[in-house]
Amino acid sequence: MLHYATKGKYGLAICLGNSFSYFAYDDMLTLMNVFNQAIVEGGYLLINTAMLAESVFPSQESRSWMQAGTLYFLMVHEYDNLLGALKTDMQFILNDRVEKKTAYHFIYRLAELMRMFSNQGFKVEATYGDLDQKEYDFGDAQAYILLRKL
């Protein structure tokens, strides 16, 4: 994503599923520049994330797990203050096989993202907390951020 070169400019770009939460600050600025280069003036960018500070911190559990048939997925979450990221140690258990992975999700505040996008020539048109266009609020599990390129 950081090195994507479009073949033209578009009226709409969509970034779903926490895709930009994998990037630390400097890489986030690079990604925003990619969006800027890909969208026509007056065009839109729609971002979906569950990794805003306002979504993560009110409901963050230190441990969680899920089951899908005979597969178990265990997670231990820890916030790294210096990195500004949620570190998740994961274990996938299927019968007697165990696989371990670690993921980092960089956590940004909504206001911080708005300033970053503003510096890249975008204006926040709306923030929603669900697909019914309810205004995003502290504690909402998801955020949908609609931006317009100036």
SS-derived structural category: alpha+beta
Q: What's the SSE pattern?
A: EHEHEEEEHEE
Distance between the termini: 22 Å
Amount of helix: 10-25%
Give the overall average pLDDT. Answer: 93
Quaternary structure classification: single chain
| Radius of gyration of CA atoms, rounded to a whole number | 17 Å
Low confidence ranges = none
Order the strands across the largest sheet as they lie in space: 1-2-8-7
Task: Please give the largest β-sheet.
Answer: 4 strands, mixed
Q: Report the portion of residues in β strands.
A: 35-45%
Q: Tell the overall outline.
A: globular
The count of domains is 2
Number of strands: 8
Task: Enumerate how many helices there are, as a single number.
Answer: 3
Corresponding CATH superfamily of the largest domain: Vaccinia Virus protein VP39
Q: Could you say what the CATH topology of the largest domain is called?
A: Rossmann fold
Which CATH architecture of the largest domain is right? 3-Layer(aba) Sandwich
Short summary of the structure?
The protein is α+β, with helices and mostly antiparallel strands. It has 3 helices and 8 strands; from the N terminus they run βαβαββββαββ.
Question: Can you offer a commentary on this structure?
Answer:
The mean pLDDT is about 95. This protein has two domains: about 10-55 and about 105-150, Rossmann fold; about 60-105, N-terminal domain of TfIIb (Single Sheet), CATH 2.20.25. By secondary structure, the chain is α+β, with helices and mostly antiparallel strands. It starts with 9 loop residues before the first strand and ends with a strand. It has helices spanning about 25-40, 55, 110-120; strands at about 10-15, 40-50, 65-70, 70-80, 85-95, 95-105, 120-130, 145-150. Helices cover about 20% and strands about 45% of the residues.
